[in-house]
Specification:
The chain is of the alpha/beta class. The protein contains six helices and twelve strands. It folds into three domains: 54 residues; 68 residues, membrane protein fhac (Ubiquitin-like (UB roll)); 115 residues, Cell division protein FtsQ/DivIB (Rossmann fold, 3-Layer(aba) Sandwich), CATH 3.40.50.11690. The strands form two sheets. A nine-stranded mixed beta sheet has the order 6-5-4-7-8-9-10-11-12, with helices on one face.
Amino acid sequence: MTVLDNPSLEGDSVPASMTGRDRETGDERAAASEQKVRRRRFLFTRRRRQRRAVADRWVARAQRRRWWRLASVVLVVALIVGAVWAAWFSSLLAVHQVSVVGLSDEGELVGGQEVRSAASIPVDMPIARLDTASAQARVLELPWVASVEVRRAWPQDVVIAVTERSPVAVVMQGQERRGVDAEGNLFDPPGGLWLTDPIIRGDDSAIAEAVKVASSLPADLEKRVRVIQAVSVDDIRLKLGNKSIVRWGNSQEAELKAEVLRSLLPRRAQSYDVSAPSLPATFGEKGPKK
């Protein structure tokens, strides 16, 4: 085999087998590089999609939370508006019945009517708009009412609890008989004046003192008294059932006066004077029973 010498090709000449290998290696490197680029693009795209999906889910959850908050606020407002409307303007929670409790059997019928009339609570009025303080003040204007409490009994009832004044004596004003309590308040009990004695008569300025005497009498002496005569503030007299007269004086030292009077009653006198309990006196004694 003859080899031709060519100086011009000596530096650039490459064996054919070596050139093919280099070309294959370059192609492999290019393919590997391109594969890396594609893989990076794929990973980048996947990460970007994942981040976008996470962001979309977060936005969706945030939107749902906002809608739930808005729906909750709307629901709460609607409930409040509905409750206000039902309580203040509708007939759902309106007054259907007014009950009066605390009255005696004698005064339940007449007294209940008087209390309802005085309270002036209209039926079908929304119970939330009821002014209980004003209703109580109107009922307290009844002379025979000592205390009163007006309560709402949800959903549709009103209860009026009344305490009546208790008479301790009967005051005669001309031909009119009126009850009087321990504080000196005159009134006509709604069930009628069942108390028949003691009856207080006399000067108007001494009536209050006579009431104090009546309320201070012990039970065993009170049942003997028929009339209390108020001559003056310091001269209160008791007329007993046996028509004896007791000069009681004023309402002071009531316990001592009662004790002294008990010790004198066996003498069966026409009159007793315990106005000064340390110096008692009797008049017209019949002496003890034999």
